[in-house]
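Dear H.,

Thanks for agreeing to be a second pair of eyes. The structure we're designing against is below in token form, covering all 288 positions.
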């Protein structure tokens, strides 16, 4: 893949280069698309006075502990174990029991790129608490600026991606492919940011590029319910069960990096189908 093609693979989400829209009738039987009902005063008070403060304090405590452990943790295993415990606590505080569908697909390969839709700030805790192995994430670089979370991301070897800077993103993708070749699984959000309305956005082809370059499988995953649990641009938790639906791994053996766009389209089709089969959302909006 040329440098121009690679820049396209990591282009900012607001100017997507890789677009693969899936018609609603292909992925959803026509479920109604409910609007989130207004929260009661009791629910808002519970979120503001109990859940949010506990969430913040718990994150600070776990983050501080992880930073101390990072001084002696060379391979990141202990830090990841702490993050796993933190994530379990976050789901408990948020009132979000997690069910994993297709769990066997998480252990079929020792190394893979795990790609998921992105609906909420709660997506990362759900994934850290659900995936039964150590991994690294590729995430937007501005998360590294957050107290405790950013410090943990930096010390534990996660990989920042600046989608607004194609050259920096090229470096990140190459770092991701290197981690895969060294035996470390990766978790990526191909949309590059959270969905406002709970429907899938356009995908970027960076995850497919890394999977092909490292010749490892690409595993589609759909998070269901996190949008309703903690929607974008809100400050209140809406306790509810959530699901992590894991699809069949997509083999990349023999693929060339020039196939990244086609693989991205396939990945989005699979994740859309998994999501709309399990979500209490309406069909995916059709292209105008």
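And this is the sequence the design step returned. I haven't edited it by hand at all.
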């Amino acid at each position: 893949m040329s440098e121009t093609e690679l820049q396209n693979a990591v282009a900012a989400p607001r100017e997507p280069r890789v677009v693969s829209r899936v018609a609603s009738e292909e992925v959803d039987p026509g479920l109604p698309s409910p609007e989130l009902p207004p929260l009661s005063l009791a629910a808002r008070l519970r979120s503001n006075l109990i859940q949010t403060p506990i969430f913040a304090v718990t994150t600070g405590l776990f983050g501080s502990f992880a930073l101390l452990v990072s001084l002696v943790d060379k391979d990141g295993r202990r830090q990841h174990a702490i993050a796993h415990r933190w994530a379990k606590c976050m789901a408990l505080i948020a009132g979000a029991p997690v069910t994993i569908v297709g769990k066997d697909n998480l252990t079929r390969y020792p190394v893979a790129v795990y790609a998921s839709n992105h609906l909420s700030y709660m997506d990362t805790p759900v994934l850290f608490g659900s995936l039964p192995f150590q991994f690294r994430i590729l995430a937007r670089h501005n998360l590294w600026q957050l107290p405790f979370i950013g410090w943990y991301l930096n010390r534990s070897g996660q990989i920042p991606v600046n989608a607004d800077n194609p050259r920096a993103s090229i470096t990140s993708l190459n770092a991701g492919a290197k981690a895969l070749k060294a035996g470390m699984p990766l978790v990526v959000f191909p949309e590059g940011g959270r969905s406002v309305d709970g429907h899938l956005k356009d995908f970027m082809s960076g995850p497919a590029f890394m999977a092909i370059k490292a010749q490892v499988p690409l595993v589609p995953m759909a998070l269901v319910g996190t949008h309703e649990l903690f929607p974008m641009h809100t400050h209140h938790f809406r306790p509810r069960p959530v699901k992590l639906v894991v699809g069949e791994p997509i083999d990349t053996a023999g693929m060339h990096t020039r196939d990244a766009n086609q693989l991205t389209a396939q990945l989005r089709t699979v994740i859309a189908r998994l999501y709309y089969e399990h979500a209490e959302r309406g069909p995916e909006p059709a292209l105008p």
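Two observations from my side: The first helix runs from residue 3 to 9. Strands lie at 98-101, 113-116, 136-140, 159-161, 186-188, 218-224, 242-246.

Warmly,
E.
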